[in-house]
Amino acid sequence: MIDACNLFAKLPKAELHLHIEGSFEPDLMFEIAGRNHIDLPYATVEDLRKAYDFSELQDFLNIYYQGMGVLLKEQDFYDLTYAYLVRVHADHVDHVEIFFDPQGHTERGVSFETVITGIYRALVDGKEKLGISFKLIMSFLRHLSEESAFETLADAKPFLHMIDGVGLDSSENGNPPEKFEQVFQACRDLGLKRVAHAGEEGPPAYVWGALDSLGVDRLDHGNRSLEDDKLVARLVEEQMGLTVCPLSNLKLCVVKDMKDHPIRTMLQKGLLATINSDDPAYFGGYMNDNFKALHEALDMTIDETVQLVKNSYTASFLPPEEIAKRLAKVDMMVKELR
Ligand code: HPA
Ligand code: ZN
């Protein structure tokens, strides 16, 4: 008889909220900085890790943008992405929908082509060698202008066959979704899926904005939706996927203690919540570490665990027949393991 704690580790699952630049582990960062002759403002990997002490989103973003500054060449982006895939393969992740932040690189003079071809080549190799299917989501930085987002979309035009969707990330407060309404409309016209970070630090009004102004197909975080009953009812009715990130929430002080995490409430209300790692190199863990942290704090049941794992496929952008196959596989494994 299996308990919930070793069940999550064994089941196949999808990751839907992962910033590839946030999977940049200190050892690889030092290695790439070395070969690119860039000095990091930290003497050792340990010193760098000590800097990962955040009291809000902006503290993290400052370090996150500094870290990605050593990525210059196509091979750097390949190595970053392939290292992530190898790591989550061990957690039985068999489908990923990853974000990348092109403006974090083009602003530094690295071409859009360099960034996307490195990431994409690793994703293709990961599919072939590790069996991990993928979608690629280009995120706009919301602290920059909509004009800059339009320029990024223009840069992306020759590579649209590699891109499945667009997202919105970076500093949430003061940068509401409505700021990007036109560019999201243009992306919709191009047939791209749309997601946005909302309700991580920002108020429920930002979640409404993501739904009504951006027309999102899925919401990233969404924690603060719980403050608004009408909003919760809408999210439940539409079965809108929420990509929840427990260790990120703890590290960025969105929750004070993992025991206060709202994941159980979300499931009880009927929200399509999923578990994800966000920026695993900075927040203390990958996919299964997030499940583990929830189990230790909240003593999740087998039914809750299976629900969360199945939600990861249901909320994905895989075609319906593929979702059905993956769900059937989870059901079969749960039956065998029970
Ligand atoms: N929130 C907003 N922007 C981000 C994050 C996040 O958690 N991670 C990387 N960019
Ligand atoms: Zn995120």
Tell me what the structure shows.
There is one protein chain. The chain has 338 residues and is α/β, with parallel strands linked by helices. The protein is 51% helix and 14% strand. The chain is built from 17 helices and 8 strands. It has an 8-stranded parallel sheet. Helix 8 links the parallel strand 3 and strand 4. The model has no long low-confidence stretch (mean pLDDT 97).
What is the chains' assembly state?
single chain
Tell me the major beta sheet.
Answer: 8 strands, parallel
So, CATH architecture? Alpha-Beta Barrel
Spell the H/E element sequence.
HEHHHHEHHEHEHEHEHEHHEHHHH
Helicity range:
40-55%
Q: What amount of the residues lies in strands?
A: 5-15%
In the sheet with the most strands, the strands line up as 1-2-3-4-5-6-7-8
What is the terminal separation in angstroms? 5 Å
Shape: globular
Low-pLDDT runs: none
Q: List ligands, each type once.
A: hypoxanthine, zinc ion
What's the CATH topology label?
A: TIM Barrel
| CATH top level class name | Alpha Beta
How many helix segments? Answer: 17
Number of domains: 1
Computed CA radius of gyration, to the nearest angstrom: 19 Å
Average pLDDT figure: 97
In CATH, the homologous superfamily goes by the name: Metal-dependent hydrolases
Tell me the structural class: alpha/beta
DSSP strand tally: 8
